[in-house]
Amino acid sequence: MKAWVFAAITGAIFALGLAVSGMTSPGRVTAFLDVGGGWDPTLAFVMAAAILVHAPIVRLVRDRRQPLFSEKFHWPSQHAIDLRLVLGAALFGVGWGLSGYCPGPAIVGVLGGAPATLVFVGAMAVGIVVTRLATRRRPTAG
Length: 142
What we know:
The chain is an all-alpha fold and 142 residues long. Helix content is 68%, strand content 0%. It is built from six helices and no strands.
């Protein structure tokens, strides 16, 4: 139970940060990607600030034997750059560039009830389900 409470608090802080920084607005994201027109560097500053906060915390946490609010750490288990990673990253980037949404800000944006946000999150949910079904059916190597 303690892990769920901490996850909810962390998610709320993340959502608040996205809202305060304006990253729930797809116009902000597409303006960042428009380097030939009305470029808006706000996203770069938000990313840099996130890295400055996150990097030292990860360094401290990696030295711990066990997390505070879970039984074990959930670090990425795969480190290889394979076709699945490249295709997934490309699909994510194309979707992000066309819509102006990435998953975190879109989920926060659902609270505003904008139809485009609701359609994006619905399509994202369908994509997650389809991907999970497709990867379950595929035999694993080894």
